[in-house]
Amino acid sequence: MAAGLAHPRHWPSWCLVGLFRALGLLPFPVLWALGTGLGRIGWYFGGPRRRVALTNLAICFPDRSERERRRLGRAHFGYLGVAAFTQGVVWGSSRERLRRLVQIRHRERIDEALAGGRNVILMVPHFVGLELGGAAFTALVHPGLYMYQKIRNPVIDAVMRRSRTRFGGIAVERQDDLRGMVREIRKGTPFFYLPDQDAGKVRGVFVPFCGVPASTVPMLGRFARLAEAEVIPLIAGYLPWGRGLELSFDPPLAPFPSGDVEADTAQMNRVIEARVRTLPAQYFWVHRRFKTRPKGTEPIYPRRRRR
Prior knowledge:
This protein has helices spanning 11-23, 28-45, 47-60, 66-85, 87-92, 95-101, 108-115, 130-140, 154-165, 178-186, 200-203, 219-227, 261-276, and strands at residues 102-105, 119-123, 145-148, 170-173, 191-193, 205-209, 212-216, 229-238, 245-249. The chain is an alpha/beta fold. The chain starts with 10 loop residues before the first helix and ends in a 31-residue tail after the last helix.
């Protein structure tokens, strides 16, 4: 531990870390029940995020009734609670416990790619189980390469960084030279890449997501081309009633990359959209995915009320 992190001003953060580490020792079904309960309570008190989730669900599931979308929203907040309560499992569980908790489907897709000497980028959409999924991937499948954004709280930042590297994972800061990251992928280290959040006006390209133009980071095709890598979607989904987590390796994107940045980005969104429909309560609906709008179009999300 860095000497500066022992300063008394960081003690509240360490107490919080200790609390979550202690919770992580509980049986997983207990964590699931506690997290689901707290998350569903949060549904009633998290007004702004509840409204964002309901707006996203209305866009992505126009064929469902408002009642069904509200049921999905409540379930989603329950899964957010589960993700929070299982953070201690992510930070401190042994390889053996992760093996008991995590089921892996279609592992042969990643194993065959690596055994054949093919470089791999794992496209990991923002499902709520991705933190536990990332720990399980590194511990049980192969050490991975992660793009990392520094957290303002230095204690949480240090704990998160340690948890992501303790089984041999490699963390790369977003501001680092990406050429080093590409070289590492070419050495055979799978790259764990999360591409599906609002990219803003400068970095993003507008391609459809659930039929609505969404500002999307266009880097997946470029990374695949530069690293000569195969792109395999990886989905992390919680199993019902606290039975653990399922990691599923989907078929590689093909043909990919095409050389057309916009077409590649649109293909990525279509793949993510299809998977969202298989786990509709577990996608990260509280993110304002459609925040950035094409010029001349109206905002999608309700404006915050001024008091």
